[in-house]
Amino acid sequence: MNWLKEQFQKELWSPYAAGVLLGIVGVLAVWLSDSLLGASGAFENLAGILGKAVAPGLFDNMYFNFIMPPEITWGVVLLIGVFFGGLLGALSSKTFKLRVNGDEQWQRIFGPQTWKRWGIAFAGAIILEYGAGIAGGCTSGLAISGGMLLAPAAYLFIAGMFASGIVTALLVYGRRY
Amino acid sequence: MTNMILALFLGVFFGFSLNKAGLTRYNKIVNVFRFTDMAVLKFMLTALVVSMSGLYVLRGLGLITFPNVPGTYIAGNLIGGMIFGVGMALTGY
After folding, report:
1. What is the 3-state secondary structure (H, E, C) of B37-65?
2. Could you report the per-residue pLDDT of B38-49, keeping only the tens digit for each?
3. Which residue from B28, B36, B49, B17 is spatially nearest to A89, judged by alpha carbons?
4. Cα–Cα distance measured from residue A85 to residue A41, given in angstroms and rounded to the nearest whole number
5. What is the reported pLDDT for A75?
6. Out of B46, B72, B81, whose CB is closest to A160?
7. pLDDT (tens digit, 0 to 9) for every residue of chain B, 93 residues total?
8. A8: distance to nearest CA of chain B, Å?
9. pLDDT digits 0-9 by tens, A49-59
């Protein structure tokens, strides 16, 4: 019991241990719900709801009507759970804090200005979500959920993601790489 | 409804595992692309190995059928992945 409590309060687990937990969650999602874990799709469902309310004409197309329906889907509820799970993790290790800027490493590379963190994170997130939309999923929805079903798409995606991620990091970090 | 409660419950464990692996931090994500911290890869591939073994055993026992496998579009998956990687390295998502 003490051991469990100790693990619960630990800030970082071995990535192998955390990976086993995620693997079990992935199996349970298919077994109990017949669904695949994912994150990026849920944002598109939410964007659809918002878009239909604000600009119905613009969002009245195949993609937002059928592929990513504007509904509170299983994935959206999962994402709400992810938020609380992350919160629980941070609270359990007493590392929870509200922060508006990046961490130390971020500030060393990009500078201490808060607007830079927000601007780059916003732009980066748009690029990321757009890429996920083209590929058909993100790290969780395609790479992990597809990979566990041995879908070739997942491994193509992982290859592309690492190739460009490494190049981007090289460009951003330059001589500090 | 039960399905939605399950989703919430599974999501909590999903988020918890991400947090405990440190994947909620910018430096963990970007450092895998700099080859200085391999936590992301260790985490992802462990999850993959565990879940694919579990799923194939369960299917072999006839307990589950696989959901729709994500379709393969070589250019789409590859180019989408490459665009995704740029955002991932910039944002630390």
Report:
1. CCHHHHHHHHHHHHHHHHHHHHHHCCCCC
2. 999 999 999 999
3. B17
4. 19
5. 92
6. B81
7. 889 999 999 999 999 999 999 998 999 999 999 999 999 999 999 999 999 999 999 999 999 989 888 888 999 999 999 999 999 999 987
8. 9
9. 988 888 888 88
Structure tokens at A177: 């790489």
Mean pLDDT, rounded, of chain B: 93
- HSE-CB at A95 with a 13 A cutoff on CA atoms is 14
Cross-chain Cβ contact B33/A162 below 8 Å = yes
Full-model pTM: 0.92
Supply A168's token pair: 């981007």
In angstroms, rounded to a whole number, what is the distance separating the alpha carbons of residues B32 and B37? 5
User: A78–B8: do the CB atoms touch at under 8 Å?
Assistant: yes
> How far is it, in rounded angstroms, from Cα B55 to Cα B30?
30
ipTM: 0.93
Joined together, the tokens standing for residue B9 give 């419950």
What distance in Å separates the CA atoms of residue B93 and residue B90, rounded to the nearest whole number?
Answer: 8
CA A58 to chain centre: 26
